[in-house]
Amino acid sequence: MAEHKPFKLAGVMGMPVVQSRSPIIHNHWLRKYGLPGAYGHFPVQIENIEAALRGLSALGLAGCNITQPHKMVAMKMVDWLHPMAEKIGAINCIVVQPDGSLHGFNNDWYGYLQSLRDARPDWRADAGPIAVLGAGGAARAVLYGLVAEGAKEIRLINRTRDKAEVLAGDFAGVVKVLDWAQRHAALEGCAMLVNTTNQGMYGQPPLDIELSALPQTAMVSDLIYIPLETPLLEAARLRGHQTVNGLGMLLNQAVPAFEAWFGVKPEITDDLRQAILATFQ
Ligand code: NAP
What is the pTM assigned to this prediction? Predict the structure, then answer.
């Protein structure tokens, strides 16, 4: 007799949430692996987040992703936190346990590191200084990932210096804060430049940065994936740098979540990438 697999539900909770590509990723994998289940959008207002999270178990859901602006609030409502989520101070994934309790994870840092390894399998965080622009939520996950991976020197540069100082306080000795005005010269001798600001994203002006001090061997990474090639990545490619866009981070952070909810470690394939790219047209 064929094995009976229970129907499982998951989704992404946020406000607004309709822009999230997560349903395309997870429903693609559900179809690919022949698993009975579905993944949807859950638009939830911030004042309803606790009731919505407590309802996950009652409704029999496997779990959910959490997107902005709920990533920090939701962290306070789970019953157990993965140590990296605790350090980062935000969650992007909840897994409902058999006893109904909620476990919180942050898979963004893993997704980011994996996207770099996919692009350059021999990539190392300790290959040289890393310049990180921006000190928002995404920068927190990136910094924790880079430091966990062995980065020795990170130059953190944010338009609002105070925010960078607060973030750098978590990484005494490794992360050095520089003024926004120093961002061009700060690239001197770097092995990697990372843009975690929203500058260059669809609807935003290009990131204002001069790359001439950046060694040509340096990798240039941008967390943005709409457009896939930001003006920063285009300028870097024309100078001969290896570039990495934000799509790999988005896809890779979904892998551990899918495995936890649906029991199969999914593969990131070209047809999945094409399905996501088709939504950017
Ligand atoms: P956030 O918390 O709002 O932070 C935004 C950052 O951009 C801050 O550092 C902010 O600096 C900076 N910024 C805004 N306007 C600027 C300007 N005119 N000049 C210079 N800097 C400016 O946002 P986030 O959640 O960290 O997201 C940042 C980017 O990462 C977004 O483009 C997002 O789409 C992308 N992202 C991608 C993934 C992925 O899976 N690929 C995941 C998460 C985020 P101030 O502190 O001075 O305001």
Answer: 0.95
